[in-house]
Amino acid sequence: MAKDCQYCGTQVIVPDQGSLVVNHKDVRWEEYPPKLMSPRINEDAVIFSYQNKQQLQAAVRSFYEENSSPYWVHIVNDENSHSFPISIEHLYERLTNSHMSDIIHESSFTAHLQPIIDVRQNKIYGYESLLRTEGHTVNPAELFSYAARSGLQSMLDQQARKAAIKAKHDHLEKGQKIFINFLPSTIYVPEFCLKHTFKIVEEYKVDPSDLVFEVVETENISDVDHLKSILETYKSSGMKVALDDVGKGYSTLERLTLLNPDYVKIDRSYIDHCHVNVENQKFLKEVVSRSKKLGIKVLAEGIEKEEEYLWLKNIGIDFAQGYFFGRPLPTPEKDLILPKLSTP
């Protein structure tokens, strides 16, 4: 049981038996004392001993559902007297959906790889790493949503990066890029929080220049300067960075100059039927034009039709990705045959 970093949230395994410590001022514990748990009271807190997770879960559910204000509690491992703080919301989620916590703690997932095509050379440029759970039916979006609710985002994000770097080592050739999603909200102090990632890169002897870290699409960035410092930390270590979903949310064209990524990935909503959607065509041409002036490469993802690809190729995109070329696979096809176009 350990806590990796005071900034990264509590990354612990709740002991099977121990004590729950609640501050007097946080809850009205007298009104609903958990069954089978005799409290010990001191000057500052009420201490409930529990013999199993079921007892703890009953107590936490009672506290969580009856108190609207967020607060922190302490869990004490009675075997070694180790104590750690955790918010009542995070503890409630981990106990209520323990199978999801197990997936994250045990790294029960792997990286699937989807090909990215170099448009000019008509060959594979690299792959995007996409998280998939092993032996489970849990959707990756559901897993990341749960991680946010349970305070396990940093752990999941770190492990997902590790899975991607391992996939690069195991399956891709030197020079082939791998695009790796990351959550800026889990990186509080870039120089410290990214040490884990840089250590994994060294461990697998991967060329840093083959790694492209892209801001995950679900992030809502409010602190652009902080995001810029994260991207600069990656770049100073010889890695590349990508701004995902340009055209959606924070990823506006106006921020390209400020963030200066190596790649931009266009939001897939602009790709769908782009060959006939005049409004989308106007935006896509602007992205390509502005990116070329800044020396930024443009990647269009979500391509599913030949007509979409041909139109995008004609306006000068650099790279393409989507089901039209290949789906994510645990082991990429070594001899992937690219689609033959009906129109030059």
Automatic annotation (TrEMBL):
Gene3D superfamilies: EAL domain (3.20.20.450). InterPro entries: Cyclic-di-GMP_PDE-like, EAL_dom, EAL_sf. Residues 93-342 form the EAL domain. One of its GO terms (molecular function) is cyclic-guanylate-specific phosphodiesterase activity. PROSITE patterns: EAL. PANTHER family: BLUE LIGHT- AND TEMPERATURE-REGULATED ANTIREPRESSOR BLUF, CYCLIC DI-GMP PHOSPHODIESTERASE PDEF. This is EAL domain-containing protein. It comes from Halobacillus yeomjeoni. The lineage of its organism: Bacteria, Bacillati, Bacillota, Bacilli, Bacillales.
